[in-house]
Amino acid sequence: MSGSPSSGAPVRVALIGMGRMGRAIDALAAERGVEVVARLDAAAMARGLTREALHGAQVAIEFTQPDVAVGNALACLAVGCPVVVGTTGWLAEHDTLRQGVAQHACAALTAPNFSIGVQLFLAIAEEAGRRMRQISAFDAHIVETHHAAKKDAPSGTGIAVGERVERGLGRAVPISSVRVGSVPGTHEVIFDAPFEQIRLVHEARDRRVFADGALTAARWLAAGRSPALYGMHDVLAFDATP
Predict the structure, then answer these.
(1) Is the pLDDT at 159 greater than 70, yes or no?
(2) pLDDT at 61
(3) What gap in Å lies between CA 58 and CA 151, rounded to an integer?
(4) Same domain, 51 and 88
């Protein structure tokens, strides 16, 4: 199921999870050269992610809930279908997914955020932290804001931003989480001194930015990648994720 797509042919994708992100990906897929061959909601997942259920997909895209994401990904790998995991909040099971990739010799890709702008933001945040390292007057804080239905806090992206700032700054940085309304995602790095403040902000205006990135990742993963656990830094031409 993991062969390279033929030239000009749409990449065949199975969507696992038909919530907000699944529907956004479905709506954008054809425009991005992707054929959705399976749409698996909670009822379909309960029946099992078998080879038949995936309908010959070259790659699956998983956006569900933290408590089932790794199990879904392992089920895909077990039947030879590479998988893009977009669900966040399961960081403690990262090694389990890595072991599954090795066990089944099938590739997977995961990222806390599929926005290309966020990948650039991560690099900028780390560089800002590095430049602040020797300036004790500035305190640092991260604020991440998402819609009220988001279950994990801090967000996967918030954690990634924190890691990058800490890498540059050389010390721990607190993260505050705000859950309100229907905000797709806003991440802010604040450097505050007694008489001035610097703010770095990335604001997602439309959920389609994540759908577009996930489809880009799926097309990349479907192109016959060696068995490994990849990230968006592998897909993009610049180093912008840990």
Answers:
(1) yes
(2) 98
(3) 30
(4) yes
- Assigned domain for 241 exists: no
Residues annotated as catalytic (active site), given as ranges: 146, 150
Beta bridge partners of 83: 60, 108
The rounded distance, in Å, linking the Cα atoms of 137 and 187 is 23
Specify if 230 maps to a domain: yes
Q: How does residue 238 score in pLDDT terms, banded at 50, 70 and 90?
A: low
CA distance readout (Å), 68 to 63, 88, 90, 100? 10, 11, 9, 15
Q: Which residue has the higher pLDDT, 86 or 239?
A: 86
Please report, for the domain that includes residue 125, its CATH number. 3.30.360.10
Model pTM greater than 0.90?
A: no
Burial class (CB in 10 A: 0-12, 13-18, 19+), 169: buried
- Tokens found for residue 56: 């010959």
Residue 149 in any domain: the answer is: yes
* CATH number for 231: 3.40.50.720
**Based on the domain organization, do 220 and 199 belong to the same domain?**
no
Smallest CA-to-CA distance from 217 within 206, 233, 203 is with 233
Distance separating alpha carbons of residues 140 and 193, to the nearest angstrom: 9
**Could you give the number of structural domains in the chain?**
2
